[in-house]
Input
Amino acid sequence: MSLLGSVSTMALQASTIIRPAAEVDTDESGYITAHPFFPDRAEWLYGGLAFLIVAGLLWKYGGPAMKDALAKRSDRIGKEIDDAAAAKSAATTEAAQIRQAKGDIAAERTRLLAEADHQAAAVLAEGEARLEQELADLEARSLAEIAAVRNRVGDELRSEIARLSTAAVDHVVTGSLDDATHQELIESFISRVGAAR
Amino acid sequence: MSDNRIDGYARALFEIARAEGTIDEVEDELFRFARSYETSDELRNALTDEQIPAARRQAIVEDLLGGKATATTTQLVSMVIGSGRGRDLPAIVDKLVARASSSKHLELAEVRSAVALTADQETRLAAALANATGKQVNLKVVVDPSVLGGLVATIGDTVIDGSVRTRIDQLKSRL
Output
């Protein structure tokens, strides 16, 4: 009996089992001719042989392909595992680089900030010093100019006073020199010279 | 003109005036004319202008001095001007006056005054100067308005300055 036959038999037996009792095939004595679960020994034998044949065929013809497919799958999975490991390693390396770069960036940022602070402080100090110097120069120049102007104004004032005084003296003296004064001056001169010896 | 030539003219004028017997008047008149000549640019330019004929210049002199000075003085000045020595007239006259003073053993005393002195004042001034210097002086008074007032006496190298001008100048210097 072939495997298909056994199967069909088993399906027939199963349908027999689930048939109502009135429809079950019975022999003349009214007993059921086949066990619903345990076939006959021949069916066991034929079924076992068919199974072995099918299993052998499967083993012979399907085994290498399956084995090859499984090997390929194993290789693919291994490769994927390796790739994942490499990717993980690369990612780890990149992460380390990123962390290092981040650290470097932070250090560089700190350095740049410190340098900027230093330069700003230097520029500020230089600017303050320059401004103080310019302020001092400006103050000194202003004081010198004030002194010069004061001296010049003083000189001009003194000169003007002298000029006006001279003009006033000339005017007053000339105006006051009448004949009597002339005679008095002459007599005074004669007396003074005569008394000198 | 060289000093020798000025001396020559002065000596000649002196001898002429002394020969005329008018040395005192001539000396005095020449001195006064020389001072006026120094202070008057117009007169000096007229009497030293070579473009004006000598006769014309001499005529100017005679017009100026005629009747105001002795004839000897007029002639002597006219002679100097006519000979083209007008520029040296003050120096010639100064030499002449110095020679005249020396001949009389007197020291020339030039006195500048803003106003004219009276004869009495001149006499007393001469006496005062003689007393001050210890020498008899030949007093020559020059009226110089620039003095303003008082007197300035120059005897040799000695200057006695009592002028208002000098006092004003000193005051100006102080100012």
Summary: Residues 123 and 129 of chain A are 10 Å apart (CA to CA). The interface with chain B takes residues 161-162, 165-166, 169-170, 173-174, 177, 179, 181-182, 185-194, 196-197 of chain A (CB under 8 Å). Chain A is about 85% helix and 0% strand.
